[in-house]
Design goal:
Serine Threonine Protein Phosphatase 5, Tetratricopeptide repeat; 340 residues; elongated; mainly alpha; 77% helix
Length: 340
């Protein structure tokens, strides 16, 4: 009898212990209402990272009154990804309304204007961003994009812009390289030579810096130094179209058509869409009567630049006048298809 009472008492103790453990576990375990949901911004950022930009903008506009600066910037970027400049500008203006000195928002507004082809407004927005932060590279690059898109490119504005970048951000190799290129193309060779040499000191691996240095050396009368630089650059940068093309051009001017043709061919291999190199290959191979190579090269030159049609027709006329019936017909039918 005593044994039974003892056994029952033990069961009661075990049961009460289990009840106490279960109650404590329930008190400490998080309930559904206690689990903190993902914030709107975190959810939107996850959607953006997955490339779900439409869902991102829907979520953020639905919570527009709760968004901080980070959320509004994400909204701007999502509309930029969707190529929706109107909504992009609307979100950027909300940021500017909160803080007129937000240079990043002004830059995004400039990009939205540029997408809408409102070039004047874009320039004003980029310039306003730079007034607020003269070291903000994206605003400079927005302006550079506008000046480079013009036909012909606004070299004066570009040169002034990159000089500002050098002065305000620092003499980075990429800025010096652009100054080298722009100054050479604008025939301001004294500045170009200085910029090209400085760019080469910073980074010797950029072929165009060596080429534009040689271009300006030649323009200032230092032809021997220029030709030697062209030659060394072509030897060093075998996979550079600009290096191969310019040395080929030097050889062509010297009427060394056989070697020039080889370098023009190397240039087309470096960049298969380079119309100028295809045209060089065409004219030099034509000079040494390799008409099969010339015909293919003229066709490719025309494919990538219709302005080469004049040179193609000139070659056709030469063949016709020389009564080369074997090739004149082939050139004539092909050149007729090369029209502006």
């Amino acid at each position: 009898m005593k044994l039974g009472l003892y056994f029952n008492h033990s069961l009661i103790i075990v049961f009460l212990s289990f009840v106490s453990f279960w109650a404590n576990a329930q008190a400490t375990a998080p309930t559904t209402s206690q689990v903190k949901p993902l914030s709107t911004l975190q959810t939107a950022q996850d959607l953006f990272n997955k490339g779900e930009y439409a869902k991102t903008t829907t979520l953020l506009w639905g919570n527009i009154d709760q968004l901080d600066r980070q959320g509004l910037l994400l909204l701007v970027k999502a509309h930029e990804k969707k190529k929706e400049p109107g909504d992009m500008a609307r979100a950027a203006n909300i940021l500017i309304g909160k803080n007129e000195k937000d240079f990043e928002a002004h830059t995004f507004l400039g990009s939205a204007f540029l997408m809408q082809k409102k070039t004047k407004d874009a320039i004003e927005s980029y310039k306003r961003a730079l007034e607020l932060n003269s070291k903000y590279e994206p605003a400079y690059m927005g302006l550079a994009n506008i000046f480079e898109m013009r036909e012909p490119p606004n070299l004066y504005e570009l040169r002034a812009l990159y000089q500002d970048m050098i002065d305000n951000i620092g003499p980075r190799p990429v800025y010096l390289s652009k100054m080298c290129e722009i100054s050479a193309k604008d025939s301001t060779c004294e500045l170009a030579i200085r910029s090209c040499k400085e760019a080469i000191q910073k980074d010797t691996s950029i072929a165009s810096n060596h080429v534009y240095l040689a271009v300006c050396l030649k323009a200032t009368g230092e032809e021997n130094a220029a030709n030697e630089t062209f030659k060394k650059t072509a030897a060093k940068f075998k996979n550079s179209e600009v290096a191969q093309y310019h040395y080929a051009k030097v050889l062509e001017e010297q009427k060394n058509y056989i070697d020039a043709m080889k370098f023009y061919k190397a240039a087309t291999e470096a960049d298969a869409k380079a119309a100028r190199s295809w045209l060089g290959l065409a004219t030099t191979s034509f000079e040494i009567r390799k008409f099969d190579v010339a015909l293919i090269a003229y066709k490719n030159a025309c494919k990538f630049d219709k302005k080469t049609a004049a040179a193609f027709r000139k070659a056709t006329t030469i063949l016709r006048n020389s009564q080369n019936s074997e090739w004149s017909g082939k050139f004539e039918s092909a050149s007729e298809n090369c029209t502006f």
